[in-house]
Amino acid sequence: MAAALDEAAAALLGVWESAREGTAGRVSGAQLRAVTVVEQHDGINLRRLATRLDMLLSSASRLCDRLVAAGMLEREPGRFDRREISLHLTPEGRRLLAELRADRRARLAVVLGGMSPAGRDALLDGVREFDEVARQQRAQSTQASGDPTEPGDWPDDPDRPSGRSGDLSIDPERQTRAGWADQSGDPHLSIDADRDRSAGGPPVARTA
């Protein structure tokens, strides 16, 4: 069953990827995931974002730098600890996600239009149940790891930023820019900020 679903899902993922390609000139795949996480967890700090993206803290910091420069994210002092940096979507970031979803749904509608009513109903019922089970399993995994699901849980979390030495999530601007490693562990050198600006235009987010 899992193998059959894996094969059948390729077409659905193809629709997702086709829609995402429309944003490729504005943000990378990793940056789009970051924007989505920030939308779901408004006010999340850098350390939490890096954890949810399964990314090194330094890599997440550079990724956010580029999204801030591109006008997709903004940084503010934390709600519970002003030494902590919280991340929020800008109107441009929300507009990007709205455009992506509209494009994706239009592409899905074309495929759904070729299906029988019974097939559409069965697909919707199955996907909804799949989503419910997946959410429950993620919630259980989150509780087991002690990672809060809502920003309101952070004040009592012993792992939240507290100003101690080595906690780089307090102020990303203080982190070393000489080098970093991406999610795969490959080393990268710092990229000159001037290379992130298109000629005569606003900053463009590049792959972090």
Q: Trace the largest sheet across and list its strands.
A: 1-2
Going by helix content, strand content and strand pairing, the class is: mainly alpha
Shape estimate = globular
Distance between the termini: 37 Å
Order of helices and strands: HHHHEEHHEE
Radius of gyration: 19 Å
Describe the protein in words.
- Helix content is about 50%, strand content about 10%.
- The C terminus is likely disordered.
- The radius of gyration is 19 Å and the shape is globular.
- The protein contains 6 helices and 4 strands; from the N terminus they run ααααββααββ.
- It starts with a helix and ends in a 19-residue tail after the last strand.
- The strands form 2 sheets. Strands 1-2 form a two-stranded antiparallel ribbon. A two-stranded antiparallel ribbon has the order 3-4.
- The chain is mostly helical and about 210 residues long.
- Strand 3 and strand 4 form a beta hairpin.
- Helix 1 packs across helix 5 and helix 3 crosses helix 4.
Task: List the SSEs and their pairings.
Layout: H1 2-21, H2 29-40, H3 46-52, H4 57-69, E1 73-77, E2 85-89, H5 91-112, H6 117-145, E3 179-181, E4 187-189
Antiparallel strand pairs: 1-2, 3-4
